Amino acid sequence: MKASVLALIFFLATLSVKAQDHKESNYDEAKVPAYTLPAMLKTQSGKLVTNKAQWEQSRRPEILRLFEDNIYGQVPKDYDSIRYSLSNEDKNAMNGKAHLKEVLIEVFRQNKSVKINLVLFIPNHVQKPAPAFLLINNRAKDQTDPTRTVKSDFWPAEEGIAAGYTMAAFHNADLAPDDPKLFMNGVLQLYPEQLAADNGMRAIGAWAWGASRVMDYFQNEALVDKDKVAIVGQSRGGKASLWTAAQDQRFALCVSNCSGSTGAKLARREFGERIRRINTSFPHWFNTNYKKFNDKESLLPVDQHMLIGLVAPRPVYATNATEDLWADPKGTFLALKHAEPVYSLYSLKTGLGAEAPVPNTAVIQSPLGYHNRIGVHNMTGFDWANFFRFAVYHFKQKP
């Protein structure tokens, strides 16, 4: 049989599976089951958390371990050495508006290494060090093209430079190819013991691990303000950006764009993509233990409002798109709302209303920001314009 015919059969089969997935998924609010969220501010021993010291010393570590053990896997912290080398530099990129650096970050452990290729544009017109946005790029590598031959709203580097921000990005495949048969061919070569553990790191965790290694580099990059770095991700990258910010408190701000299931939306609503579906379609993203909760969301010891809470008191901006019901816009807004009690421990009041704002309306002046863009599952210029506004507000930078 000709390859073209086989490809057509595979494509049609894929469409059939996706159609069935969406047919089985609930998009009717009336069919959302009654649910009770796990208590954010009650320890596993039943003690109520009433102040930030109790949160930081007791409850936060508990919740972090629950996410590690049941969903995202451990994030190993040890490595033998890390090296940085400049592979390309142009101090007058973007017609003199930016300083381009292409940096190779190489991490070594037990005679093996992994390489992270970082693209970094730094604005020339602002006082250094400059605040930064770091994107976990889960699309084609040309979406973050350092030559700027290819330009995309997915990573509007020129607009970021004009707004006064360093625009940085790395590709997720450097850490773990987004393929269930190949994902171990990256950082997990350094940590093979994780593959044998039911609560071991998988692809999402590997991408978060990579973001932290970039943050290691920022600690020694004089042109970047290491205290004003925002981590950004879209879709699966948005899941990883939340997990990155929860794990690594050096990130000052988190953006999770259209992250949906096991990102910013509540699992217990059973709306749109559910745990069984994501574990079936992407078995390499989360740890083995997560499969125990397929069709059993109510048994999870955590829900995604608790992941957002782990980022407190640092700001979180989450988004949705009106035609992306698969990612449950209402469930994302509710997860933010249910994270508010943790921010209250830090005397931070959010600007979120009782109901989600109307589409294309952004909540900016709040430690928990949100918008639901008119359109489809994507990351666009509209989204980025609001990320920049959110950072201006929280970094106290002049627009």
From TrEMBL:
GO terms for molecular function: carboxylic ester hydrolase activity. Keywords: Hydrolase, Serine esterase, Signal. It comes from the Bacteria. Residues 1-19 form the signal peptide. It holds the Pfam family GCE_fung. InterPro entries: AB_hydrolase_fold, GCE-like_dom. Residues 105-344 form the 4-O-methyl-glucuronoyl methylesterase-like domain. This is Prolyl oligopeptidase family protein. It comes from Daejeonella lutea. The lineage of its organism: Bacteria, Pseudomonadati, Bacteroidota, Sphingobacteriia, Sphingobacteriales.
